[in-house]
Amino acid sequence: MHKKRLIAAVVGGMLAAPPAFAQITISGTIKDGFEMYKLGAGKAAAPAASYHYEPRISDQSSRIIFSGTQDLGGGTRAWFQLDSRFQSDVGGSTQTNTAATTGINLWAGGNTGVGLAGDWGKLTIGRWDLHYLEFILIEFGYAGSLQDLLGAGPMSQVNGSVIANGTRTPNVIMWDSANMGGVTARVAYSTAFTTNLTGVQSSDEGSGKGTNGSKGSALTAAVRYSSGPLGLGASYWTATPETATSNPVGEQRSLRLWGGYTLPMGLKVGLGFDNSQRRVGAAGVNDGDSVTKRSAFMVPLAYNFGSHTAYLTLVKVGKLSGPNAGGPTDSTDATAFALGWEYALSKLTTVGVFYAKIDNEANAAYNFFSTSANGATNAAAGESAAQLYAGFSYRF
Predict the structure, then answer these.
(1) pLDDT computed for residue 95 by the predictor
(2) What is the C-alpha radius of gyration for the chain, rounded to an integer number of angstroms?
(3) Distance (Å, rounded) from C-alpha 155 to C-alpha 295?
(4) How far is the C-alpha of 324 from the C-alpha of 158, rounded, in Å?
């Protein structure tokens, strides 16, 4: 990513920036396109009377990032990053709107934090993407939509319920290791993982009095290996919502494993596995009665030839297992695929066309990633969802 130094200040003219600001940089992405989105009857028990296309200009997580470092001596430096997302299709960032897109459109709503770094690694305090984007290294494309990222969509859901927020986790303290012969590691802890600041509301981590407990938290650990054409990774996530209950509804556990290999001809082959569970009811006599779980696999392929790259991702989400708190487990599986092509106009500018589809079985309700960002209608149980997207990405 190309970065530009912020070295000017205007006070009656152009002045040299003070030394404390010499390492501040500005970077970002503007990513927009045209999409045709449509639900289908699929295998729904009670489909809608009719289904129509939802055409829209669709921003895909455009952002501007301010970051900086300062040498503290002894091999240690202070650093910060302020990542603000905005929607180039409908307007800029907001701090007072509490609508569904506020989390997307919030000042400093992206990966934002401050901390220390050195040969020992990097310490972060802030809000950050954790766990759910671990497949990004095997399915990433510049010009596609967020919905094309199936690893962050149906692979990060348990029958439509999102694991690890599907966005930045707030209230985080995190350590990232230095690169150790191709191996990197991450450990992160959140004091209240379900709290996402919207509008002028404050976070709710419990009062610590009576039944308003402060027992909620999230913990994640990941390890990755990269050497030449080979990449491997594993990530574990465990999270409990804020409540006084010992085993509350919404409690989550998730394990994902992935690997990718790029052949000399330019073909990259990947494999991802995710096993996730979510508590759907208060724990009873048999604690397992309220837990639903499933396993899912994905195979992402990418072929680069010159300035062109073609993509194909296949996903299979298995049936729910366990009693599921009395809910159905039959016909709760789903399949999905994404097919795309992109062309690099330059190192910073890419255009592309992508098509993605999810087919739910009768009792499954899986959806694309980040449908709240583009305003798409979520699929109900048994319905299918499809998107055709033509987009443009410029990085700076």
Answers:
(1) 47
(2) 22
(3) 9
(4) 11
Alpha-carbon gap, residue 315 to 335, rounded angstroms:
6
With CA atoms as reference, report the closest residue to 340 among 356, 363, 321: 356
Q: How far apart are CA 292 and CA 323, in angstroms?
A: 7
Decide if 189 contacts 208 (C-beta within 8 A): no
pLDDT at 218: 94
Task: Give the end-to-end CA distance of the chain in Å, rounded to a whole number.
Answer: 6
Length of the chain, please? 396
Query: In angstroms, rounded to a whole number, what is the distance separating the alpha carbons of residues 329 and 311?
Result: 32
Q: What is the pLDDT of residues 100-132, one digit of tens each?
A: 444 556 788 899 999 999 999 999 999 999 999
Q: Which residues pair with 86 in a beta bridge?
A: 62
Positions in the chain whose pLDDT score sits under 50: 1-17, 20, 94-102, 196-202, 285-286
Q: Please, which residues have CB within 8 angstroms of residue 59's CB and are 6 or more apart in sequence?
A: 31, 32, 86, 87, 88, 89, 90, 373, 374
DSSP class of residue 17? P
Closest CA to 43 of 331, 368, 333, 383: 383
Helix (H, G, I), strand (E, B) or coil at 31: strand
- What pLDDT is attached to residue 203? 52
Half-sphere exposure of 306 (CA within 13 A, CB side): 4
pLDDT at 215: 72
Per-residue pLDDT at 289 = 56
CA atoms of 9 and 246, how far apart (whole Å): 54
- Determine the pLDDT at residue 216: 82
- pLDDT for 105 equals 62
- Give the C-alpha separation, 85 to 108, whole Å: 7
SS3 assignment, position 360: strand
pLDDT at 209: 56
Nearest to 232 by CA among 192, 283, 301, 184: 184
Task: Give strand pairing partners of 82.
Answer: 66
Measure the CA–CA gap between 178 and 131, rounded to whole angstroms. 19
